[in-house]
Amino acid sequence: MDIKRLPKTEFAAAVAQIAGERNIDPQDILNSIELGLVSAYKRDQKEHGNIIPDEDVFEVEIIPASGSFSIFKVSNDQRLDVTPPGFGRIAAMTAKQVIDQKIREAERETVIAEYSHKIGSLVMGIILRVDPYKTTVGIGKTEAVFPKDEQIKNENLPQGSKKFFLLKSIVEDDIGHKDIVLSRRDPEFIKELFAREVPEVGNRTVIIEKVARSSGERTKIAVSSNQPGVDPVGSCIGQKGSRIQAVLNELPPDEKVDVVSFSKNVNQFIANALSPAQNVKVVSIKDGLATVEVAESDLALAIGAGGENVRLAGILTDLEIKVVGSNTAK
Predict the structure, then answer these.
(1) N vs C: which end of the chain shows fewer Cβ within 10 Å?
(2) Is 214 strand, coil or helix?
(3) In which domain, by residue range, is 275 found?
(4) Which residues, 6+ apart, have CB-to-CB distance to 92 below 8 Å?
């Protein structure tokens, strides 16, 4: 069916109106209806015991007087009307289904385009459905995918619960279907939480230089400020810990967050990164390995449970850190 040759019927007017309102190519609607009607015809014939070979060619034609459709089989330049009795009802239902689907697709494309400008930001979502591999989350007027590998291990998010998510990306599969992908595991999620809760981070008076995260367990962020009189760590902690507590409230109960001061002095930065350990002394830095001494009393703090603290400090400083105890470390 060619939209340019489509007879002026109520159906044609309806297609034109829908196309205009939804910003859909009317020819795309008609092409989809044609494919849908041919498929409906083949199903109808199969139900009556007539299997249509895949190589058979069919065309769809709209009848000007009624706006109804007819099916023609094309063979050797001959067109044979094969429209079965009662096909009008099937055709009308199929056309409606195709148009409804096109409207849904167009609406989703509009929503996807809107959210494409929000990649990297926080969105509020409500858990709609949970399965072993992914969770479906309602965000505004649409749904998003929350994959297993973007979830925090052992975090329980029951159906109906509301949480913040990082809008991580929009992915497209082989057939052109697009999904909005959410994350709570990505380190950027932590950055955006601080940007939300700490005005100085939001307006870039305080800069989050780097984030090292073991989601659900511990996170370290290094912060700085070029503005005189601004304490970057204090800004992120807030009065009586109010700001960092707001961040922690959005994380699993067991996840701890250390805010440390960034320094261009590598030795000082290493010492800061190993917080909450004190009295850290950098002995040497060679070939990407930093050896540090800490007082025996701080050794457990510097290393952390399962080596987590020293590992994250290494990520923060881009070094492998070896911690040794020293009764003389001051």
Answers:
(1) C
(2) strand
(3) 266-330
(4) 68
At 23, which helix (H) or strand (E)?
none
Q: Within 10 A of 100 (CB to CB), how many other CB atoms are there?
A: 11
Domains held by the chain: number: 4
With the C-alpha atoms ordered 319, 215, 185, 201, is the resulting torsion angle positive or negative?
Answer: negative
- Beta strand 256-261 with 289-294: parallel, antiparallel or unpaired? unpaired
Residue with tokens 């070939």: 287
Does one domain contain both 144 and 232? Answer: no
Which of 84-93, 126-135, 220-229, 265-274 shows the lowest per-residue confidence on average (mean pLDDT)? 84-93
| Structural contact between residues 210 and 219, judged by C-beta atoms closer than 8 angstroms | no
Using the predicted structure, report yes or no on whether residue 3 has a pLDDT greater than 60: no
What totals of helices (H) and strands (E) does the chain contain, helices first? 10, 14
CATH of the domain at 282: 3.30.300.20
CA distances from 102 to 36, 97, 273 (A): 12, 9, 54
Whether 281 and 252 share a structural domain: no
Q: Tell me which of 63, 82, 116 is where a domain ends.
A: 116
- CA-nearest of 199, 193, 281, 294 to 238 is 199
Per the CB < 8 A criterion, the answer to whether 193 and 159 are in contact is: no
List the CATH number of the domain containing 127.
2.40.50.140
Residues 303 and 325 in one domain: yes
Contact 225, 205 (CB under 8 A): yes
Other beta carbons within 10 Å of 301: 16
Residue type at 309? N
Q: Which residue has the higher pLDDT, 29 or 330?
A: 29
Residues 110 and 11 in one domain: yes
DSSP-derived secondary structure for 115-149 = HHTTTTSEEEEEEEEE-SSEEEEEETTEEEEEEGG
